[in-house]
Design goal:
By secondary structure, the protein is mostly helical. It has helices at 3-25, 37-51, 57-69, 76-90.
Length: 91
């Protein structure tokens, strides 16, 4: 086996690789992003939810008023029934 022939073949392949790299570097690429109308709707819904309050004052205000007045009562039987319903749903 002749080593000189191997070296010549290797040099030939190395020069082609360098030429390919140079030609690829001249190409300009640009990325583009397009959001579909469904995606835009989802974004606006997320913004609306983020801007909304976590507490519904129209529901909690009367309960708070009854608690402060000392007139709010919870039936132990009603509480136990609702607790068992939630337990059954989680099973």
């Amino acid at each position: 086996m002749r080593i000189e022939a191997y070296t010549q073949v290797q040099q030939m392949y190395n020069t082609k690789k360098a030429a390919n790299v140079k030609s690829k570097s001249n190409v300009n690429f640009s990325d583009q992003l397009q959001i579909s109308s469904i995606g835009k709707d989802i974004q606006s819904a997320k913004q609306a939810v983020a801007g909304a309050s976590d507490i519904r004052e129209e529901v909690t205000a009367p309960i708070k008023a009854r608690i402060q007045a000392g007139t709010y009562e919870v039936s132990a039987e009603s509480f136990a029934d609702k607790l068992m319903q939630k337990f059954e749903e989680m099973r």
